[in-house]
Amino acid sequence: MADPGDGAAPRDEAEAGYRAVGERLTAEFSGVHPPETVARCVAAARHGAQEVAGGAPADLVEKIARRHLQVLAMVAAEKRRRAPRTTLGNTP
After folding, report:
1. Model-wide pTM > 0.85
2. How far does CA 43 lie from the centroid of its chain?
3. Residue 6 burial by CB count (10 A; 0-12/13-18/19+): exposed, middle or buried?
4. Which of 2-11, 54-63, 76-85 has the highest mean pLDDT?
5. CA nearest 56: which of 9, 10, 24, 8?
């Protein structure tokens, strides 16, 4: 069992918070992004928050990751919109 003075309990709570963020965003963006993409965005947001702000509270990580996922969705939609269309289905 972890010693209350070794910092394990707050670390475990933080990890649980990040898992919850990932679960919420996976549900929110289901059908848009695969769970792996969501996990990568949460990890990148966490790292970015730690680098820039010196800490990564779960609510900040969630906001950053959500914005990343929204931007990725917009880019993907724009690529689909610009893709050549054919009704014959015979394009390479």
Report:
1. no
2. 7
3. exposed
4. 54-63
5. 10
Angstrom CA distances, 46 to 3, 31, 60, stand at: 26, 23, 8
Q: Which two three-digit tokens encode residue 77?
A: 């939609």
Helix ranges (DSSP H) in the chain:
8-28, 35-53, 58-82
Separation of alpha carbons 21 and 58, rounded Å: 7
pLDDT for 22 beyond 70:
yes
The answer to whether 74 touches 32, Cβ cutoff 8 Å, is no
Q: Which residue has the tokens 């969630």?
A: 62
Pair of tokens at residue 55: 């800490």
